[in-house]
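Ops channel
N.P.: pipeline sanity check, posting one input/output pair.
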């Protein structure tokens, strides 16, 4: 019997942003979007489905 195991290992970068993205998007200019903003915090977590540990 053959068993194939697949998955991904990733790092999630979760940022808290005090505003709303829709406030930064300008109607009529959605064909070229360039955003720059400050965040209040950053949390880095293990992600993906292959490297999970309890």
């Amino acid at each position: 019997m053959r068993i194939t195991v697949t998955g991904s290992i990733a790092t999630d970068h979760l940022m808290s942003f005090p505003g709303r993205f829709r406030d930064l998007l300008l109607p009529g200019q959605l064909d070229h979007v360039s955003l720059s903003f400050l965040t209040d915090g950053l949390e880095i977590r293990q992600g993906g489905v292959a490297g999970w540990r309890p």
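N.P.: looks fine end to end. The chain has no helices and two strands.
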